[in-house]
Write the structure tokens for this entry.
Amino acid sequence: MNYLILFSLFLLFGFYLLKLDTNSLKKSNLIIALIIKFFATISVWFIYTYYFSNTSLNDIYKYFNDGKILNESFIKSPIETLQFIFEGKNNYNIRNITDQLIYWTKPNQYGLLNDNQTIILLNFLLCFISDNNILIQSLIISSIAFYATFSLYKTLNSCFSIPHRILFFLMFFNPSYLIWTSGNFKETFIYIGLMFLFSNLIKLLNDKKSIKINIFVFLNLIFILFCKNYFFIFLLPGIIAFYSILYFWKNNKTYAVSISYFSFLILIIFAGLFYNPVNFDNTIKDHQKRKLYIKKVNSDSYEKNALGENRNIFEVLRFKQRDQQFEAKTQHAHTVVYAPTLDGNPVTFFKCIPFAFINTLFRPNVIDFRKPLFIPDIMTNFIIWLLLFFSFKYKKPTILKDEKIVQSILLYFTLISLVIIGILVPVLGNIVRYRAPILPLLIISLLLNIDFKKIPLFNKL
């Protein structure tokens, strides 16, 4: 039955692929890219099934396992399962099943939506198609990610002046894309949302009256909100600026994106300094009393910021970093990277930024070559470094205003995301996975800045 489902899905997707309008792209190249994507998906499934054999903990299985449990519960008692999903009612009839859910509840929410539940529910729905087979499910998700990549590629190719062969290669054969968005990762779902979002935003530049595209943008944003809360927050200033430029200003003010993000930063700093600040009393000299005092202040702050409603963003980040460090210690992580410890002070946060960029853009590197799983990410880093070099040496003299708007949103969003990931996440293996959905956007923002006509090697592309 599973193989019949798999064969039928391949036939349907292959038929749909042949019907796509690919413009200047040869369909044979697209099919080759799809085959490589499927090969990467099967490889990831094999590694996480037979090399990282603890399927209750590893990254492609944990949400699938909970989704499968919900699926079995729904088949047994559909009404009670829906009540559990939407109302939190754990009926006696299904409690013996739902109590097995490991990742449905997070220890700390920090005032954000529980995105674990979103990914589990998506797996729950896909289980009806895959017949609870994780390989089939991974291939379905990878197929959607592939189409999302094609959607953004086609939009960029038709609207902006990036050599299509370079764009195609970097979007479809980027090693991080092939590994970390090929399978049942949370990052694959986030990647899908981001690709479709920016594809529709760029389409709006040429068709701003389209109700259909605006609805798609709204749905993409809601999807990202429920899949990864803080990505939605980092996108919001750019989206506000984008719509302001599109509908309210007669002249395209390309610097509006910068103003929006700068205002967002000022607001965060202001809130960090004046809203629920944590000020330690430095007049206490006795070591033992000071130790007890700091413990009490930290405890009060944890109650307010991690568990309560009265939150300060820099305190929330402090406790989030502690949680990540504690998890790395308990899991005996081998690839721990350094970032200064946050203390709730905005100044300390900004001091951490250089270390964040080192962790997210310069690691892994040749020093980490001894870890075979890092090779694709080392290759991706090399591509980014090369594009950074080209973007300075062969910078476009002028960038079209539409390109500038998109580039600014992409750049601000990716840099802020990389900073937060680099500061909070202490394990290199997690960093390379968490950053995977946003690296293609960073690559696109750099491509928009390069004048390829100045580079002799690319003159014919």
Observations:
- The chain has a mean pLDDT of 84.
- Residues 48 and 58 are 7 Å apart (CA to CA).
- Residues 254-277+312-461 form one domain.
